User: Fold this.
Amino acid sequence: MSSEGKMRADFRSARTLALLALLSALVTVATLVVRIPIVATKGYFNLGDALIFIAAALFGPLFGMIVGGVGSALADMIGGYIHFAPWTFFIKGIEGLMAGFLLGFFKVKPWSVKGIIVSAFSFALAAAWMVAGYFGAEYIIYGLDYAPPLAELPFNVAQGGISAAVAVVLVPIVALALPKRTDITYYGRGGG
Assistant:
């Protein structure tokens, strides 16, 4: 246990690995099930980011990174967007890492007013990274042409914003539902 009384995830334990696999699968399913096609780029709008934010908020930056990268890249591969999978792995992995790092840095309880504000700020910054990352990736994928990433930009902004809002609402609910002594909790039972 750390000096703050929180326990860190042990990435060698079966429980932690099972939770990583489960959350990655949930991100994959959320990405594939809620999928609205974007005609201009043949991409799609989804809510997988909300689960990435929730995982990062409750279990920390490494969880967010692994769940975001693996779950989202798997969705791209299964959904027929294999050319995006390496980009998605990197972009969504960093998105989860950023969200978890920022939340861990501020050390707040997610159900407090301060926690909700910090969550919204952290998720918005991580979503902004996702938007910028996909803009750059699409610029490269589509032959150094600005038209496709510009066409998808409003959809990515909406995806990030809606996912952040969903996560801001769900994180406190899920955090309070977790057992008080969860050996994998990073942020959910944090400081003031």
Notes: The helical segments are 14-33, 48-59, 61-78, 85-106, 113-141, 147-177. Residues 43 and 180 are 41 Å apart (CA to CA). Residues 14-177 form a domain with the Arp2/3 complex 21 kDa subunit ARPC3 fold (CATH 1.10.1760.20). Residues 1-7, 188-192 have pLDDT under 50 and may be disordered.
